[in-house]
TrEMBL record:
Biological processes per GO annotation: tRNA threonylcarbamoyladenosine modification
The protein's name in its UniProt record: Gcp-like domain-containing protein
Transmembrane regions listed in the UniProt entry: none
A Pfam family hit: TsaD
Organism: Tuwongella immobilis
InterPro entries for the chain: ATPase_NBD, Gcp-like_dom, T6A_TsaB
All residue ranges annotated as the Gcp-like domain in the record: 36-128
Length: 240
C-alpha cells in the first residue's frame, strides 16, 4: 500500500495513545498521550498540532491508519471513533491495522517466527503466531485466540520467542527459558503500523484492511471488563 502524501496514524490500544503523521511512507512526527488525555478531542487536537508543525492541515491528509486491536476496550472504542471522525472530515480512506501484526513487524530481522500476546483479563491471554515471509512481511499462521495462561504455556513451542504487551504483564508467570523479544519492541507503535500498511497491496490485505468508514469496528473477542464481570455474576447467580 502506497502511503502517498500525508497520513495520520492513531494507536490507542494501550493505556497511553500515540498519534503520528507520515509523509510518503516516512514518519515525520509522533506524540504520546497519557491515559488521562486518551479522548477523541485530544487525539484530534494532537493530529492538528502535528500537521501544523510541518505547515500542513487536515485538508491535505490522504488517509488515516488506526490500530484495531486487540487491546484496551475503551482505547479501541475511542481510537476508532476518532479515526472515523478524521476520515469523514477529510474525505480520505480509513485503513484498520491489526495490532498484533504491527507488533510482529517490530521484531528484529534475525527472527523468523514470533508469538504475540496481550492480557485478556482473568489470567487469560490473547495470542497469535506470525511468520516472516520472503518479502519481509509478517503474516499470521493461526487465528487470534483467547486461552487460559496455563493452557497457552503448555502448547507454546519452547523455541518460539514471544512479544507483545502481555509479556510484561505475565513475565513472572512465564518460564525464563522461553525467549523474549526486547522490551522496546513489545508495545504496539506507529512504526509497526506503517510497516504493515507498506507491505499490503493497494487494496490492503488481512492485516491492513481498507474499510468503508461507517463499517469500521474494533477487533473485540470479549466484552469490556464491566460486561465480563456482569456476565460472571449472572452465571454465578443462575448456578446458585
Amino acid at each position: 500500500m502506497e502511503l502517498a502524501g500525508w497520513w495520520l496514524v492513531l494507536e490507542t490500544t494501550g493505556r497511553s495513545a500515540q498519534v503520528g503523521i507520515v509523509h510518503n511512507g516516512e514518519t515525520m512526527h509522533q506524540e504520546s498521550l497519557a491515559e488521562s488525555r486518551r479522548h477523541a478531542r485530544d487525539l484530534a487536537r494532537s493530529a492538528q498540532t502535528l500537521l501544523q508543525s510541518v505547515n500542513s492541515s487536515l485538508r491535505e491528509v490522504s488517509g488515516v491508519l488506526i490500530s484495531r486491536g486487540p487491546g484496551s476496550y475503551t482505547g479501541l472504542r475511542v481510537g476508532m471513533i476518532s479515526a472515523q471522525s478524521l476520515a469523514y472530515a477529510t474525505g480520505c480512506p480509513l485503513v484498520m491495522i491489526d495490532t498484533f501484526a504491527a507488533v510482529a513487524a517490530q521484531t528484529p530481522e534475525s527472527v523468523a517466527t514470533v508469538e504475540i500476546i496481550s492480557d485478556a483479563q482473568q489470567d487469560h491471554v490473547y495470542h497469535q503466531r506470525f511468520c516472516r515471509t520472503e518479502s519481509g512481511a509478517w503474516l499470521a499462521v493461526d487465528e487470534l485466540r483467547i486461552t487460559a495462561l496455563g493452557d497457552w504455556l503448555v502448547q507454546l513451542p519452547a523455541d518460539v520467542p514471544i512479544s507483545g504487551p502481555g509479556v510484561r504483564t505475565f513475565d513472572a508467570k512465564i518460564p525464563a527459558a522461553i525467549p523474549r523479544i526486547g522490551s522496546d519492541a513489545q508495545q504496539p507503535g506507529i512504526l509497526g503500523m506503517i510497516a504493515v500498511a507498506r507491505h499490503a497491496g493497494p487494496n490492503g490485505n488481512r492485516h491492513a484492511i481498507l474499510t468503508p468508514i461507517a463499517e469500521a469496528t474494533p477487533l473485540y473477542l470479549r466484552g469490556s471488563s464491566a460486561e465480563e464481570k456482569l456476565k460472571q455474576q449472572t452465571k454465578s447467580a443462575t448456578a446458585s
